[in-house]
Amino acid sequence: MSEVAEPYIRRRAVRHLEKGRVVIFAAGTGNPFFTTDTAAALRCAEINAEVVLKATNVDGVYDDDPRRNPNARLHDTLTYHELKEVAIYLKYLSVNAVVVFNLTKAGNIAKAIKGESVGTLIGGTWNSTVATA
Q1: Distance from the first to the final alpha carbon of the chain
Q2: Phi and psi at residue 87, in whole multiples of 5°?
Q3: Number of independent structural domains in the chain
Q4: CA 98, CA 35: separation in Å to the nearest integer?
Q5: Where do the TM regions start and end (predicted)?
Q6: The domain containing residue 59 runs over which residues?
Q7: Using one digit for the tens of pLDDT, what is the confidence trace for 87-111?
Q8: The model scores a pTM over 0.85
C-alpha cells in the first residue's frame, strides 16, 4: 500500500489538511468487529473533520434496496433523527454532515469534495472550502 498512500498518523493527516491538501481514509481500523464506516467516523473525529464523505456503490441513501426494488426512492437529504444508525455513531463527534455518494460514477469524488450536490446529505450542511480551478 505504500506505493499509493502512507500509513495513518494523526499528526501527518492534520499537517496535510493545514497545507490545503485533501486527506482520504481507506480501509478499516485493523480491529475485528469494526466496519469501515466506524473507521471513517473515528478518523474524522480524530482530525475534527466537518464532514464524512462515504463513497459506496449506490447513488446515496434509499428508502429500500435499489438493487431489488426498482421503485426505491433516493433521498436527497436526511436528518440524523430520520436515520438513527448514523445519529448513534455520530452523536459524540463534531462532524456536521455525512455525504453518501456513488464512487463508481465519474466525477462524483470531485463533486463531493467541492461540496456540490451529489448523493444524499445527512445532517447539517456541507459547504466545501476546496478551491476549484
Answers
A1: 29
A2: -60, -40
A3: 1
A4: 16
A5: none
A6: 10-123
A7: 555 555 567 788 999 999 999 999 9
A8: no
